[in-house]
Amino acid sequence: MDAPVAHDVFLFGGFRLDRHSGGLFRQDGAGGAARLAIGPRALDVLVAHPGELVPKQAIMQAVWPGITVDEKNLTVQISSLRRVLDDGQTERSCIQTEAGRGYRFVVPVTRHAADSEAVNRPVPLDEDATVPAAPKSDPGSTASTRRLTRNRWARASLLALALLTVAIGLGAAWFLKRPGWITETVQNQTPSVSAIGMSSPVSSSAPRLSVVVLPFENLAPDGQDDYLADAITDDLTTDLSRIVGAFVVARESAYTYKGKVTDVRQIGRELGVRYVLEGSVRRIDATLRVNVQLISAETGAHLWSDRFDEEIGQLAAGQQLIIARMYDTIGLSLVEIESARSQRERPTNPDAFDLILRARSMQHLPQTPQRDKETLALYERALALDPQSVPALTGVAYFLIDGVPGGVWGNFEHMQRAGRLLAQARILEPGSPRVLNITLYWLRTVGRCAEVIEAAEHAIRIDPNRMRTETGVYNELAVCKTWTGHAEEELALQTQADQLNPRSPWKHSRYRHMGFAALMLGRDKDAIAFLQRSLAIHPEARANPWTYRMLAAAYARTGQIDEAKRWLAASDRLWPYGTVRSVYPQELSSPIYVQQMRDYQAALRLAGARDHADEDADFGTPTAGSLHGEVAGYTPVAAPGARTIRTAELVPFLADVRPLVVDTVSNSWGRSIPGAIGLKFSGLGGSFADEAQDHLRRKMVELTRGNLNQPVVAVGWSSERFDGRNLALRLVALGHTNVFWYRGGREAWEVAGLPETELVMQDW
After folding, report:
1. Average confidence (pLDDT) over 353-371
2. DSSP string spanning 422-442?
3. Element (H, E) at 551
4. Model pTM?
C-alpha cells in the first residue's frame, strides 16, 4: 500500500473525511456538510486503501503502542462507526469482515488534497478520479503481511484505524451449524462525567465500563502465596472482559504497576479507563479471603468494596468459586454505577448504550410483570437506535421469551421474532456465552431440548471457565435434563450454577426448577424445601401459580392434604384454568419423564385438583373475530365463520364426512383424534396478516389441494384454551368455507374415553 498524503480529503458514500481538520462530515444534497460527533482517526487506513485487508496482528501493535490490551478491546469503536457509516444502508455494510482476519472498506473512495477552505465546504465528487476498491489479496501470504507491516510501522498514526480490524468468527461456529458470531461493540463516546463521588473527568475519551484490574496484593508472609494473588488477578481480568460492552485493560499492562505506589487518577489517564479494581488475598487457616475495592479513576473516590471468603478444602475449587462470585458482584456494581451515571448525564437524550445499561440494571431487581414490560421497552428503544447492538438484540429476545406465561407461547410473531433476533446476534457475536444462553432458552421454549443439550454440553466441555460467567447455560441444560428423564442431573447442575452465581437475580427461578426436578424424582420433602425457598426469595414471582401447584402435589404425597388444598386454592385464584389433564410432558422422548408426569397428575388428583374443563360451559364471553394472544381463558361459544361442534356430533361426523382434522399440538402427550395432523403452534395469536397466516396458507393448499370447500376440523386443547379457536379463525380468514371448531378439544375427547392414535406431526 502506498503511503497516504498527509492532508488528504476523502469522499465516500455521502461522507467527507478531512484529515487536515480531523473531522468526519456528512454531505447533504444542497452542498453543505454537517460535522459528525465521532473520532475520524479509525477511518484513515480503510478509506486510504479501499478493498485492502488489514491483518489483526499488525493492527494490534499499532493501535496501542506500548500498551498490551485484550483482543476484545479492538471492538470498542465498531458499533458507533458502523452506525454512522451504514445509516440508511439497505444492503451490506461499507466495512466488510473476513472472519478471523480483518476488515475491508468496500465503498469507492475519491481522494483530494486538503486546503484551508476544505474544512468548511464539501469537495465536488468529480474533481478527481475515483479510487476503485483494490482486488482482494491473500491475507495469509507472507509477502503481503511483510509489506503491510513495513509500511505501517512507518506511519503509526495511520494505523490507528486498525481498531476496526476485528477478528470475527472466533469460537462457536459449530453451534447449531450457524455462521460464526461477531463480538458485540459499544460506541466509544463519553460526555462529561459526574458519577458517584466524581466531580471532574480525567478524560472524555475513557469508554464506559472501562476498567483495569491491578495486581492483587498478597498479604501472606514471605510472598509464599504470590502465585495465588496473580492467578486471581488474571482470572478476574479474563472474566470481566466478558461483560458485554466492557473495556478491560490486559493483564500485561496492568502488571507494569505491580509493587508501585501510583495515584489511581494517573493510572486512569495513562490507560484511558474510568475504573480501577484493586484487592488483596490471604489465607486464614482453611479460608481463602479476598478483599476488593472499585475506585474511580477520575477522582480517586472509592465507589464499592466487598469481602469474599471461601472454604478451601481444595484450593483450585475455592479459587474458582471466589472468582465466579467476584465476577457476578463486580459486574452488577459496574452496571448499576454506569446506569445511574447515564441517567444523570443524559436523562432526556440517552444513547443506545445508556438504555442498555438502564435495562440491565432493572434486570437486577426483583422480577415483576410491570418491571419486565419497562425493561423490554428500554431494550426496544436501544435496538431502534442501534440495530447492530447485541445486548439490545438479546435483551429484546429474552423478554419476548420470558413473557410467555407458563412456558407456552401465545403469539407466533413474538416467537419468530425472538428467533430472528438471536440468529442475528449469533452472526454478530461469536462465542458469546450470553447469546448462547438466550438461544438455548428460546430452543427450550420451542421444544428442541435435544439441541439444547448438545450445544450446552459442548460449550461447557470445551470452555468451562468461559461458561461459568453465564450460568444460564447451566440452567437451560439442567431443565432439559429433567425433561429427558435425568432430573438427578438437573439438581447437580443447578447446585453448581448456584455456587458459581450465588447472587443471581433469577435465583428464585433456579430453586423453582430444582423443586420440580425433586418432585419428578419423588423426593417430595426436598421439593417442598426448594419451592418454599424460591417463594421466600421472591414472593411476587409471576410463576407462583405453577410453584403453588407443585407445592400442592408435594404436600399431598407427604400426607399433608390440608396444606395441599391450601396451596392448590392459591394456585387456582391466580390461574383458574388449570386441570389435572392439562399437565403434560414438554418432551416425549423419555418414558421415564412421561411416567413422572403421570405421577404428578395423580398427586394433583390427591390434592383435589379439577380433572377437566366443561366442554359445554357458557362463560358469557362475547363472540369476536379477533385472535387471542392469551394462552388460556374463558372462550366464547362460537367463532365467526366457523361452526362449533361438540364431541357427540364429532364422532359420527368423522365417520361419515371424513374431514381434515388439524391439531394445534398444545398440552400434547403425542396422541390425538384418529387421523389428525399436528401443526405445532398453528393456534397461536397474532394477526391475520402475520407470517403464521402465510405459512398456514401454503400448508393448507398442500393438505386440501387448494379445495377451500373441504371440511376442516380445528382441534385445540379445551374450552378454556384459545388455540383451537384461533386456528378456526385463521382458516376462515384464509377463505375456507367449511371450518368446524371442536370447542371441547382433545381434553373433552379424552374425558369421553374415545380412541386416540399417534399424532402425525408435519412441518408448516
Report:
1. 82
2. HHHHHHHSTT-HHHHHHHHHH
3. helix 544-557
4. 0.64
